[in-house]
Amino acid sequence: METYKILDRFELMYPTNENFSDLRRAYIDRDMYSIFKISNADEELRKAVLEKNIHSIFRLAEGTKIVGTVDDLKKQCWNKIFTVYLDCYLLVSKI
Fold first, then answer.
1. From CA 39, how far away is CA 53, in angstroms rounded?
2. What is the pLDDT of residues 30-76, one digit of tens each?
3. Which residues have CB under 8 Å from 54's CB, separation 6+?
4. Residues of the chain above pLDDT 70, percent
5. Burial 59-82 (b: 16+ CB within 10 A, else e)
6. Which of 8, 21, 64, 68 is the S-S candidate for 72 at Cβ 3.0 to 4.6 Å?
7. For the chain, what is the mean pLDDT?
8. What percentage of residues in the chain have a pLDDT greater than 90?
9. For the residues of 18-84, what is the DSSP string, one character each?
10. What pLDDT score does 91 carry?
11. HEC-encoded secondary structure of 22-36
12. Angle formed by the axes of helices 43-50 and 54-61, nearest 10°
């Protein structure tokens, strides 16, 4: 029996259990939001991955034991962004 058929049947058998419907959506529709719901992941992690929110990455880094501080991480990220921006500007100005 195909996986999607099994997931459909479980969803019909247990209509009050949202995990089965989220699992079905994650498998069949490739819905990333459903994966975060099933795993009870942190909201900041969801924002960092799905919305590509760089501020969420900094919020996640706070309170962890990373090398250096969050301020160091911010400086490195902004320096990299500025360098890429400057390179793009110089490239465009040559055209």
1. 20
2. 888 888 887 777 787 788 788 888 777 777 776 666 556 667 767 76
3. 48, 77
4. 64
5. bebeeeeeeeebeebeeeeeeeee
6. 68
7. 76
8. 0
9. HHHHHHHHHHHS--HHHHHHHHT--HHHHHHHHS--HHHHHHHHTTS--SS-HHHHHHHHHHHHHHH
10. 60
11. HHHHHHHCCCHHHHH
12. 140
Token output for 60: 């996640």
- Which tokens sit at 11? 């969803």
Q: How far is CA 30 from CA 4, 23, 33, 49, in A?
A: 12, 10, 9, 15
* Assigned token pair, 34: 């459903």
Q: Which two tokens stand for residue 69?
A: 């501080």
